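User: two proteins, same treatment. go.

Assistant:
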Amino acid sequence: MSDVASEPQSGLFTKALAAILADPPWAAKSFLAAGATTVAGLGAWLNDMMSPAMARGGASFVGGFLIGWALRKTLMIALVITASLAALIAILNTTGWIHLDWALIETDLSRTFDWVRGNAEGFTAVLTGYLPSAGAGAGGMLFGFRKK
């Protein structure tokens, strides 16, 4: 009788999720320090020892850090998907299975980039409006993108 190893089968989604969460944001020292600053600032503010500025700054850094971390992970996944699709399209175009109208593609891309540029400006305005301290949020975003 043969013994069949009972290893759990992991699918593509499980592997992708494991790769994304392999380096969690809460493992970074700056994230932990900002979280501790937020908690200490909230405690001091609730005990009427100081203003909520320290808690707001720490929370803005944590929020920016999480946004930067998510942006980095999203960009890495998007880069892999885009490169795969570009390779597939190049292969299909070379073999003659598809025909590409480059003028139409250029028009669509320029319209899409204009739309993204306009929405990015609006997104920046929303972020600076929701983050109490835009400087701490921007610093957190930088640190989160670099994961330090």
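Protein 2:
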Amino acid sequence: MLNIRAMGEKQKYANPMLGVFSGLLGILLATTGMSSSAGCPCNYTPAKLIEVIAADTLLLQVANVEETVKVAGIRVPRLESPRASGEAWCKAEGEKALQARDYARTLLMKASEISLDETERLASGDLLAVVYIDNVSFGQELLYQYLAVETDDTPNWCP
């Protein structure tokens, strides 16, 4: 049997708590789309992926200009040994760098929205920015997967 109510007629619940529950559920559903972890994305700059150079170095189209963007706040393993610097490097670091780059590529290619919170322009001309994918911090995602360390930490990629 189909029950059709007249327009404007209030729905009656057998249990008054069901009405309260229904109202709370409506409020919850209305607010779950809001992100509380990333701040206001209203002044972030939209970007489009061109290429992932390394997990922390991206080639993005920003305001119709190709920009090399360094991801702020993280350090990732290096793809190859920095010959001139004399810093320690091992094959395990290179393998971890490939894993990090592949994971970064997967995340960025699946993202429906990429945006930047620019922090500064480096002397090299690259942008240093916090990168967001679908309003989630890209750098944090790499940290969660142990594919990056925070900028002020000393990485130990070699066993």
